[in-house]
Structures are given as structure tokens and as C-alpha cells.
Amino acid sequence: MVLFLLLVLVAVTLGIIGAVAEGLGYLLFVGIAVLVAALAFIAVRWSRRSDRRPIR
Fold first, then answer.
1. Handedness of CA 39, 44, 50, 52 (dihedral sign)
2. Which tens digit of pLDDT belongs to each residue from 1-23?
């Protein structure tokens, strides 16, 4: 969970810098890519975790 939050924080920071700074628009796209990677990471973790629950 800490890794997910760190990735989201990095994505938001890069996105803000990329949107505000002139000539650094590529940082906005890198921030979006990091956010998508973080969401994919947490989705995989949650899907694998749900498989381990015992059936009652």
C-alpha cells in the first residue's frame, strides 16, 4: 500500500510540474503513465488477494 501511495504522489507531482512549467509537457505524460501503472499495480494486488480467501 505504501508503494501505491508513493507512486500516486509521484504521479501528481510530475503532473503538476508538467502542467505548470513551460516546455516540460512531457512530465505531464510521464505522470499520467505512472498513475496508470500505480492503478494497474493495485488492481493486480487486490485481484490476487481475493483468490486467497478460504471458502466458508
1. negative
2. 788 899 999 999 998 998 898 88
Q: Give the Cα separation of 55 and 25 in Å (integer).
A: 49
For the segment 20-51, what is each residue's pLDDT rounded down to a tens digit?
Answer: 988 888 888 888 899 999 999 899 888 876 65
List the grid coordinates of 37. Answer: 501503472
C-alpha–C-alpha distance, residues 27 and 10, integer Å: 11
Q: Is residue 13 part of a domain?
A: yes
Q: Is position 56 within any domain?
A: no
Domain that holds residue 19: 2-49
Give the total number of structural domains in the chain. Answer: 1
Tell whether pTM > 0.85: no
